[in-house]
Please model this.
Amino acid sequence: MDDPEQWLLSAEERGNPHTALPGWTAGNLAEPLLHGSTYFDRLVEEVRSLNAGDHLFFTDWRGDPDEKLRDEGPTVAELFTEAVKKGVCVRGLVWRSHMSRLSLNKEANRSLDAEIEHGGGEVILDQRIRRMGSHHQKMVVLRHDEDPSKDIAFVGGIDLCYGRRDDADHGGDPQPLPMAEAYGPNPPWHDVQLQIRGPAVHVLDTVFRERWDDPNSPDEDHPIAWIHDKLHHTRLHADPLPPQLPPPPECGPHFVQNLRTYPAIRPPYDFAPDGERSVARGYTKAIKRARRLIYLEDQYMWSAEVARLFAEALADHPDLHLVVIVPRVPDQDGAFAERPQLVGRWQAIEMCRKAGEGRVHVFDVENHVG
Model:
C-alpha cells in the first residue's frame, strides 16, 4: 500500500476527536488464524509464555469458563487463572448480556466473571450501552513488561465460549451451543481471528484501557441490574490498571487500523462522548475505492443501508465484482428469528444484483456431511 490514507481513515475521519487512538500504525505483522481450534491453540501457547508483571487484557461478547481450548484442556478459566498465579495482571471486560431464553449470554458471562474473579483476576460485566444493545469486541491483548518485542494481540470474530473450537473439517465444537436444527447436534462454526504483533498491539491495549477506565458504573442506567449485582456481590468498580507499557517495536510490513462502534449514551463515554462509528466510516471509504473486487463473508447480510453502499459501488464501476459468502440457513429456528433474516437477506442481495447484473456472486458453505 503506497499511500495508506487512500484506503484507511485518518484520525480526523474517525469522527471522534476525544480518543487517544492514532489513525493507523505501520510496521505490524498481521496473521489471520482460521477456525477456533487454531486460534485457541495459539492463545494457550502465548498466555503460557507470560510471566510475573506481564499483562493479559481481554474483552468478550460471550464467555464460558469451562470451554476447552484444546482437547486435553486447559479451559478458559484454568488458563487465565494459571496466569494470575504466575503474577500476571489479568483483567477482563465482558458484556453483561441478556437472558439465555432470548438466545443470549447473561448466565454464561456471569459464570466466567465468577470463575476468573475466584482465581484472582478481575472481570467487569459491562452494560454501559444502549438498552438492548451489546458490547461485541472480542480481543485478547498480551503485554510483556521486560521484552515488548514479544507483545501480541488477537482480535476478530471468535469468542472464548462454547461452539467456537471448530477446525477446517467443520465437525463442530465438542462443547456445542444450540443452533437451528439444520446444523445438527454439533453446529459447525467458520470464523477468523487476527493475530497482531507490532505497534498495533499498543493501540488495542489503549482500546481496552479506555473502556476499563470509564468512570461510569458498568450498570449505569440499569437499576434492576444494579440491584441484582449488589445482592450477588458482583464487581461494580474497576481497580486501577498498572501503567501502560511502551509500544512494541515495528516487526513487519502491515498497516493496521482499529475501528470501533460505540453509541452516544448518557452519561457519555469519556473517550467517545458523541459515540463512534468508525467501522461504518472505514468500510464506506474502502468500498468506494474498490474497482475490481469486493469479497465479503458475513453471518447475516441483511442491512439495506449496507447493501445500498455495495449497489452504488457496483453501479459506479462497471468492472467491479462482489463475492458474498453467507450461511445457507439462519442460526436460529422459528418464525421470529428465521423469516426476518431470510427476507432481509433477499432484499439486500437483490438490490446488489440489480445494480451489478452478472457481477454479484453469492455462495454458502457446508461441511462434508452437508
